[in-house]
Recover the amino acids of this structure.
């Protein structure tokens, strides 16, 4: 980490590596802003982008545990905007018209990102669906918490866009996690930040995790940076008092959280212990954790990785069926968390610089190999 910072790969980073919930190596290197002495620490608050997804999925699974949601029920009673959907006859040609959806969207479809809307990494950018979302005033680029309208208006606009694929037939990235946040809120009858705090954050001890940073913690949130370009230096993507410094109108279940390495390690411990926090508090049922961390869809990337319920998994084949190997997820703003349940190893790395592409930068690949060796969790996601 120190070498990567000295080489200018990132301005600053913090990490946590542990075995069976106990830290083996934790620390920080670098600064909040190049050219300053404002050091990053293990308590620094980072924008974690898509590493948000598993945390919000855990809140959804807690509602499944309590019988508030059922995985195979239609979402219509909580998300009427997604009822009786129309589907593009040709996902690449909106002029070809639409056909009726053959069945309703289910809770499982949303958790597995198969509701029929999202980012298709195999299609030209922007796809007709993304263009329609942008035309409806919904942001489709990098995370921008203050750019979206409130949840009800967000859903209303989403409901004007036809599905690109029939429900349950195609994994499409990201948008399902944003929908999941609204589903969790409406099912629980409370705003998503309150539900997350009640069901996941407080029971797990994730005291620095949330949508926006309270005033008392703002000194731990520095600016966030773009990667340096071939002919220019890095630029500020979000200043310290920018979009994550206050609660957003739309708490995005796909990429809206801030957190620390210690908080994400505490969350990882809940999954590794099949649902219990470090103090023994039960956060999720064992069945919920096993469902989350077992491959439901795959492969979803070039490395053969799959997707469970709201979380990435790297499958280990065992006789009798599919069983999860490592699990976790990455955030394009410069975060990663993976756990290998076979060795009990968890590795969290948070940086203050966004990735230049969906492929992890060399620093992340080196970090994973140092933590996991050459196993599935040590490969890119």
């Amino acid at each position: 980490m120190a070498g990567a910072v000295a080489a200018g790969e990132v301005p600053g980073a913090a990490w946590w590596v542990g075995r069976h919930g106990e830290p083996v190596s934790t620390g920080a290197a670098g600064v909040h802003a190049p050219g300053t002495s404002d050091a990053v620490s293990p308590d620094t608050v980072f924008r974690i982008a898509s590493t948000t997804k598993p945390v919000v999925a855990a809140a959804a699974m807690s509602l499944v545990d309590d019988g508030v949601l059922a995985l195979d029920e239609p979402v219509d009673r909580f998300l009427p905007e997604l009822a009786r959907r129309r589907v593009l006859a040709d996902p690449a040609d909106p002029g070809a018209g639409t056909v009726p959806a053959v069945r309703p969207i289910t809770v499982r479809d949303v958790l597995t990102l198969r509701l029929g809307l999202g980012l298709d990494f195999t299609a030209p950018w922007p796809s007709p669906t993304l263009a329609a979302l942008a035309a409806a005033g919904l942001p489709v680029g990098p995370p921008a918490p203050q750019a979206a309208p409130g949840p009800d208006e967000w859903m209303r606009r989403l409901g004007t866009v036809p599905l690109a694929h029939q429900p349950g037939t195609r994994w499409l990235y990201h948008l399902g996690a944003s929908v999941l946040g609204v589903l969790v809120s409406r099912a629980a009858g409370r705003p998503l930040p309150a539900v997350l705090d009640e069901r996941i954050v407080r029971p797990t001890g994730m005291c620095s995790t949330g949508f926006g940073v309270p005033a008392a913690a703002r000194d731990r949130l520095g600016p966030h940076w773009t990667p340096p370009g071939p002919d220019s230096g890095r630029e500020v993507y979000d200043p310290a008092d920018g979009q994550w410094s206050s609660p957003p109108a739309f708490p995005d279940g796909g990429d809206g959280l801030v957190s620390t390495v210690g908080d994400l390690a505490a969350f990882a411990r809940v999954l590794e212990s099949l649902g219990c926090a470090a103090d023994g508090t039960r956060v999720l049922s064992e069945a919920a954790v096993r469902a989350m961390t077992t491959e439901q869809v795959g492969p979803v990337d070039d490395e053969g990785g799959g997707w469970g319920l709201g979380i990435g998994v790297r499958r280990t084949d065992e006789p009798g069926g599919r069983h999860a190997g490592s699990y976790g997820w990455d955030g394009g703003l410069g975060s990663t968390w993976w756990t290998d349940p076979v060795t009990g190893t968890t590795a969290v790395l948070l940086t203050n610089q966004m990735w230049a592409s969906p492929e992890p930068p060399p620093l992340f690949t080196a970090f994973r190999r140092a933590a996991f060796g050459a196993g599935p969790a040590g490969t890119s996601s």
Residues 61-188 form one domain. DSSP finds ten helices and 13 strands in the chain.
